[in-house]
Design a protein that fits this description.
The chain is an all-alpha fold. Among the domains are: about 15-90, no CATH class; about 110-165, no CATH class. It has helices spanning about 15-25, 30-50, 60-70, 85-90, 110-120, 125-145, 155-165, 190-240. Helix 6 runs parallel beside helix 8 (about 190-240). The chain is elongated, with a radius of gyration of 36 Å. It starts with 15 loop residues before the first helix and ends with a helix.
Amino acid sequence: MEYNTTRNYLIMKEYGRNIQKMVEYLGTIEDDDERQRNAMAVIELMGTLNPHLRNVEDFRHKLWDHIFNISGFTLKVESPYPIPTIEKLRAKPDRLPYPKKYPRNRHFGKNLEMIIDKAVHEENPEMKEGFTQCIGNYMKLAYTNWHKESVHDDAIKAELLAITNGQLEYHPGHSSGSAAAPANFPGGSGNVAGGGEQFRSSNKRKNFQQNKFKSSNSGGNKSGGNNNKHNNKYNKNRNK
């Protein structure tokens, strides 16, 4: 009996032990035409055992690469595609240049820091004021989402002054005017005030549902009291 511990290493487990034995047998065939014909038959069998590869673009190219990989890149057959090498398989990808800059205020994120830098260097006063109001509104929205409570406008004003070293001053209740935030502003479409309105509307809906639940409970208790009064009257008449 043959045990797995006595067998060689299974290179590609998705094809199984039998396919690997077939590929190993291809290396023992001396006739080139017969080896090529049997290699084509093994390719067709590999495609039948893995039908999900048919949905992959150029799946036959992948099958040929796999059969060379299973043979240890020693199979001597003609391939309609470039024959891969073991150096190409084991080649390491280039190292990605990860950013080394970390945001100074992580609770607001890096995007807001980029918008603040853009607003600080903005020369148009109207655009600068619009940027400032959008930044302040987003800071209020972020604070409400994280802390689940409202924040005073003076706190946002003081924090924005501290972040920008007094270069941007937030005016509570002041409209941003015609200046619009860019498309990559945190919050989606660039309209932070719209996000605040959506958040406030969700709070209104939540409060309405809570009040409705309370009223239903109070109505249920009232009806329960009427039922108890009716039962007491019924028991009193029954005792007579």
